[in-house]
Here is the input.
Amino acid sequence: MNWQAFLKVKAYSEAEIHPHSQVEEAGKFQSFEGGSVELEAMDFLYSCVRLFKPEFILETGTHLGFSAIALAAGCKENGFGKVFSIETDIEKINKSKLLIKSVELQDYVELIHGASLDVIPQFKDKIPGFGLVFLDSLTPIRPKEFELLYALGLVQNIVAFHDTSRTREESLKNPAEPQSPYCEAMDKIEKLYCKGGIENPLSRGFRIMQVKKI
Here is the structure.
């Protein structure tokens, strides 16, 4: 099944959307628009849902809902599963709801308006934990999200981080989201909390790790 078949949205070369260093090979990737995850990364997330069969999935940073759709499409294909996606911007929540409903995946997604660090503790007595976690909020917050999830025993197996390229600031600097501390935090998380991981340095970067049993 191709989850993209649900959508009728034009994709662009990642090289057209963001400036990139040569080593990131952005021309080999596609995105719908600047704030969304690359299609290749969403393909991978969909495949993770199909392969690892998580009952509950957490995403931080819904944006326009494209990656939530990829995750939810995997749940639908599995025949079970639920995606909880957290977003601080109510306008993006509303747009995402319309898009998700248009592709008939609303039964597999719950969109939550709020700050992730405030919302995450509310899951403690609601579900046993998340089999797949995808962290794509503001980069300085993502390590805190993981540490909170881990402390609460809510991250059970796979955790993925977006925007992890170590060469990101060679072409695109954002003072609000410095890249070096973020990459260093990913290294720490993998060393302290995970059994291992895979790092893809291409495009905006993507890391996936498998957590140690708590």
